[in-house]
Design goal:
Blueprint (H helix, E strand, L loop, with lengths): L10 H8 L5 E2 L6 H11 L7 H4 L7 H18 L1 E2 L1 H14 L12 H12 L6 E5 L5 E3 L2 E2 L13 H11 L2 E3 L8 E2 L45
Parallel strand pairs: 1-2, 5-7
Antiparallel strand pairs: 3-4, 3-6
Helix pairs in contact: 4-5
GO molecular function, one term: cysteine-type deubiquitinase activity
Keywords: Cytoplasm, Hydrolase, Microtubule
Pfam families: UCH
Length: about 230
């Protein structure tokens, strides 16, 4: 018998369910990278719900059921997930991923996403990127890389993505079904930005390869692009 599934939280319901003490995903033993990723992917959006239900060709149904029944459904129903549930997932990732440190060490979120999406669930890559004239590359998320820029004190996500793409000479080959973006990394000793404002919508017009765009001088369809 299938367990109940709960839709993502929206608007007032999200505030009611997720605000307050003992809300979110309980941290334990360097799990913050995974907790933050899981919360971002599932609490308030259904765009990746196929990860929870779809029988992908290479899919590990045990990991899929832990993700769905022990993490996502409790998060959407009560706004709280116990650390034990995340540890159960981490134990399975350790077993399946040929990496012994998923249960105790801090990882890069990209490593976690690649393991669970590619090796365990067998999902096709979400992004197709191209740098200059090089061959296009496929990936599951995009990590923002950029040098410190003095004019950006409290940037928003739109500014960071645009500048990161520009500095790396990157373009999106096609409009992605889901655009997972990892903010600039920081540690205890150094933070590139003390705050980043979330952009509730992202304009990717200028990030698309060969996309027709308006000339900023005459208003006609542009034929040249100046960085």
């Amino acid at each position: 018998q299938a367990l109940d599934s709960f839709p993502p939280l929206r608007n007032e319901a999200a505030v009611h369910v997720l605000q307050g003490r003992m809300k979110g995903i309980q941290g334990h033993c360097n799990s913050c990278y995974m907790d933050a990723a899981l919360f971002s992917l599932f609490s308030c959006t259904s765009v990746l719900d196929s990860m929870l239900f779809k029988p992908f060709p290479l899919c590990d149904r045990n990991v899929q059921s832990i993700l769905r029944d022990e993490i996502v459904n409790p998060l959407r129903k009560t706004g709280f997930v116990r650390a034990r549930s995340v540890m159960h997932l981490r134990e399975q990732l350790t077993e399946k991923g040929q990496c012994s440190s998923f249960t105790n060490a801090e990882k890069d979120p990209e490593e976690f996403l690649n393991l669970i999406m590619h090796q365990i669930l067998g999902i096709e890559p979400l992004l197709k990127l191209q740098s200059g004239s090089q061959k296009e590359q496929e990936c599951y998320c995009y990590q923002i890389f950029m040098d410190k820029q003095e004019d950006l004190v409290v940037p928003d996500v739109q500014q960071l993505v645009e500048r990161s793409f520009l500095s790396s000479d990157l373009k999106l080959v096609e409009i992605p079904s889901c655009f997972i973006i990892q903010m600039p990394r920081f540690g205890k000793e150094y933070k590139m930005f003390s705050k980043i404002i979330p952009s509730l919508e992202l304009d990717i017009t200028d990030l698309l390869l060969d996309s027709p765009r308006e000339c900023c001088v005459c208003g006609n369809v542009a034929t040249l692009e100046c960085s």
